[in-house]
Amino acid sequence: MKVGDILRNKTARVVTVRMNETVGVAAQLMRASNISALVVKDVVRTEGNTAVGMFTERDVVRAIAEHGAAGVTMKVSQLVSVQRLVSCSTSDSLEHVRHLMNVHHIRHLPVIDDFALIGVISMRDVSAAFDHATAAAA
After folding, report:
1. Which domains occur in the chain, in start order?
2. How far is 33 from 44, CA to CA, in rounded Å?
C-alpha cells in the first residue's frame, strides 16, 4: 500500500501555521481542527510558499515546560528545526513511512510531490492501514 492510497480517504485540507506565529496561535489551530500537528510554512523568495517543518503538541509542551506561561508567546520558529524536513511522497510505501517515523522518532510526515504539499500522514493512519490489511487477509 502507498501513501497516496491513504490520502485518498482523508480530507484534502492541510492545516498550516507560519513560522512567525506564536505557540498560542498554533495550539489554538490544533485545538480548533482537532489535530495534533501542523505543517509549518514560510515564504521564501526563491521558492514561494514552502513547507519547512512540523509543529506538534510535543512542541507546545516543551515551550511551556521550558518557559512557563511565556512559552505561549514564543514564535513557532524558535521551536521548529528547519535544517532537515523529513517528508514522504504519495508513491512511497507505508513500510518506508513507518521506517522514517521510527528512525526520526516522529508521528507525522508531510506528503510532498513535485515540491507541493499534498497532505500529512500520521502514525495512526499507517497503523490503521496495517490493521485493515491484516483484517482483510484473515
Report:
1. 3-137 (3.10.580.10)
2. 26
